[in-house]
UniProtKB/TrEMBL annotation:
Name of the protein in its database record: Uncharacterized protein, MTH1187 family
Organism annotation: Haloechinothrix alba
Record-stated family: Belongs to the UPF0045 family.
GO cellular component, one term: cytosol
PANTHER family: UPF0045 PROTEIN ECM15
UniProt feature coiled coil, ranges: none
SUPFAM superfamilies: MTH1187/YkoF-like
Residue span, Thiamine-binding protein domain: 3-93
Length: 99
């Protein structure tokens, strides 16, 4: 499965930034060992259900340590039997565009 998710603290720092709290969530993802991509709005994480959800839960926990309220947006592509789809899905689109 691939999950696109975004975690944000309900309370920003004194400059209105959520960057430090979000960085802690990204650290959890990076340390998980699962394939991932991070962009300006979301992190895409790939793995089996239990592993992916455990990482997301831990990321929420580290953000909630900095903020009494946390927002989570999550979208999942659940496709049993498929792996290594983070790049493969994009490559298929490129093939259609180039074809």
């Amino acid at each position: 499965m691939i999950v696109a998710f975004s975690i944000s603290p309900g309370v920003a720092d004194e400059h209105g930034s959520a960057g430090e709290a979000v960085a802690e969530a990204v650290r959890v993802v990076r340390e998980s060992g699962l394939p991932y991509e991070t962009n300006a709005m979301f992190t895409n994480l790939e793995g089996d259900w239990d592993d992916v959800m455990a990482v997301i839960k831990r990321a929420v926990e580290v953000v909630s340590a900095r903020s009494p309220r946390v927002g989570l947006v999550l979208k999942a592509d659940i496709r049993p039997g498929y792996e290594d789809q983070l790049q493969a899905k994009v490559q298929r689109i490129d093939e259609y565009l180039d074809g």
